[in-house]
Amino acid sequence: MNKRKKIDGVERDKISVLLASGASLHMISRELNRSVSSIHDEIKRNSVKGEYQAIKAHELSLKRNRKSRKNNPLKNPQIYSYVYDKLRCGWSPQQIAGRLKRDNNNQTVICHETIYHYIYSDEGKTKELHEYLVRQHRKRRHWYSRNQYQRGIFNRVSIAQRPEEINDRSVFGHWETDVVEGKAHKGGIQSMLERKTRLYLAKLLVNIDSEYGHKAQVEMLVDLPIWARLSVTLDNGKENFNHHKLTRDYGIKTYFCDPHCPWQKGSNENHNGVLRRYIPKKTDLTKVSQFELDSIVEEINSRPRKCLDYETPIEAFKRELKCYQLEGCSDSH
């Protein structure tokens, strides 16, 4: 398909002629080497009283573009200051736009694409705003849709047997866990994520093994109410050899991902990627303190999420705890 972002005047002439000749959207898309959805959107946006004419369509498009540039919310000093400050705090453009909308009674204040366009504009590049993004890409990229120790882990329960209520995130208290390795595989970080609220926790590991891995998992979960630690989904790393102790000592069910399928606990993997922004690969973790790690985790948990209707994970987690405490939700478990 054509990689040009916008349909130009020449193409609008062709669309108008082809429509007048009775051509279908599929025929027009093949003729212009564009997607059917692009042709459909162009006709829908730029038709006047149900009729598409090239000249009028082009005038409407130009008028819309001029109005868009004139009304750019980032020209408002208060909005610009808010966006800039939140970018520096590590918020994504989508989180910034979503939170602004939430704080303004669900009225759209700015689109996240507007923020991205500014970041990758000449002015944004001069200020190097891309360095505040998680991936720090210098150019906007297009969207395209560890060793395993399975044989040594006894009493594994496959993720295929995990109940649907865990899979669809409808029930609170189910966790994912993973390990972020340090430089030369010396030391690591045990991370955990609650699937429904996306609350992220992390503990430093002196060694990546079953003893320290199990100890870190217990430290992160033991002080939570029983109904806030119902299950944990793990991978097949050696740090999870003692998974049965979670069930034996604390009643926490354990499920294991299939070998070489990290996407089966993708939320945790994604958050580990965010953590890597603060603690890049090949970092000597012996020089990182738990206090520093806690500060990073708190900052990550304080960002609003689209999947939470732009609540922060901390807000969502506290709400779930309050729900169970006030309504006796724990009785259902």
Tell me what the structure shows.
The protein is 44% helix and 9% strand. The protein has helices at residues 9-20, 25-32, 36-46, 54-70, 77-88, 93-103, 112-119, 122-126, 164-167, 210-221, 243-250, 266-278, 290-301, 313-327, and strands at 174-181, 188-194, 200-205, 231-234, 253-256. Helix 2 (25-32) crosses helix 3 (36-46). The longest helix has 17 residues, at 54-70. The chain is elongated.
Architecture per CATH nomenclature, i.e. the level-2 architecture of the largest domain:
2-Layer Sandwich
The number of E-state strands comes to 5
Q: Which CATH first-tier class of the largest domain would you pick?
A: Alpha Beta
The amount of helix comes to 40-55%
Averaged pLDDT = 87
Low-pLDDT segments? 143-151
At CATH level 3, the topology of the largest domain is: Nucleotidyltransferase, domain 5
Query: Counting H and I runs of at least 4 residues, what is the number of helices?
Result: 14
Largest sheet strand order: 3-2-1-4-5
Whole-angstrom Rg: 25 Å
Structural class assignment? alpha/beta
The CATH homologous superfamily of the largest domain: Ribonuclease H-like superfamily/Ribonuclease H
Per DSSP, what share of the residues sits in E-state strands of 2 or more residues? 5-15%
Head-to-tail CA distance between termini: 52 Å
> What's the story with the biggest beta sheet?
5 strands, mixed
How many domains in all?
A: 3
